[in-house]
Design a protein that fits this description.
Blueprint (H helix, E strand, L loop, with lengths): L7 H13 L3 H14 L4 H13 L3 H14 L4 H13 L3 H14 L4 H13 L3 H14 L4 H13 L3 H14 L4 H13 L3 H14 L7
Helix pairs in contact: 1-2, 2-3, 2-4, 3-4, 4-5, 4-6, 5-6, 6-7, 6-8, 7-8, 8-9, 8-10, 9-10, 10-12, 11-12
Length: about 210
């Protein structure tokens, strides 16, 4: 399929795997490959839909839905499968990955936004919070939960690397956001730590270049 895209033997071989295998992972991989070498192939779409609808494995459903969204954008089973993962998973990482995939195949999807908000509000991982806030900031610019999550990380983290990363993200998604601007002004006015003051000024310069407090 890679060296001869559209080759009928390659297509037939993958279709046979999809139809006959008892392994969900094998069916997903075969359908994903078939979708790449023969976009829109109905057997590839049907194979991935079958995995999404029948699997009990969250990871498998997410990957199948992600593949289906790529080869058949807007497919309702792909969107529904990712929404199901976001709503039901107990894993923060899985929820973030599923929401990120949903954002790519259906920009602005309210379940993707809600799923990322849930990750930000509930995660104990600073890294996961930053990743979710970055994703949320892309699909819903100015989202207050994304801004609040980044501010929380910046305020509470003990890691300078994490603080810099969160501040950089805030500078990207917080442009013009009054909550982010007000908080940075407060940091600049009240902190005694010159290092923190400097990055607060640098971040404020990115999101509100004309601010009189600069």
């Amino acid at each position: 399929g890679k060296i001869d895209p559209g080759n009928p033997q390659a297509i037939a071989g993958l279709v046979q795997v999809i139809q006959n295998t008892q392994s969900e992972d094998t069916r997903r991989e075969a359908a994903n490959s078939l979708g790449k070498i023969d976009p829109g192939n109905p057997q590839a779409i049907a194979g991935l839909v079958e995995v999404i609808e029948n699997t009990q494995n969250e990871y498998t459903r997410w990957r199948a839905a992600e593949s289906l969204g790529k080869i058949d954008p807007g497919n309702p089973q792909a969107i529904g499968g990712l929404v199901q993962v976001i709503q039901n998973t107990q894993s923060e990482d899985t929820r973030w990955w599923a929401a990120n995939s949903l954002e790519k195949i259906d920009p602005g999807n309210p379940q993707a936004i809600a799923g990322l908000v849930q990750v930000i509000q509930n995660t104990q991982s600073e890294d996961t919070c930053i990743q979710a806030a970055e994703s949320l900031g892309k699909i819903d610019p100015g989202n207050p939960e994304a801004i609040a999550g980044l501010i929380q990380v910046i305020k509470n983290t003990q890691s300078e690397y994490t603080r810099r990363r969160a501040a950089n993200s805030l500078g990207k998604i917080g442009v013009g956001n009054p909550q982010a601007i007000a908080w940075l002004v407060q940091v600049i006015e009240n902190t005694q730590n010159e290092y923190i003051r400097r990055w607060a000024i640098a971040t404020l310069r990115k999101i509100d270049p004309g601010n009189p407090n600069l």
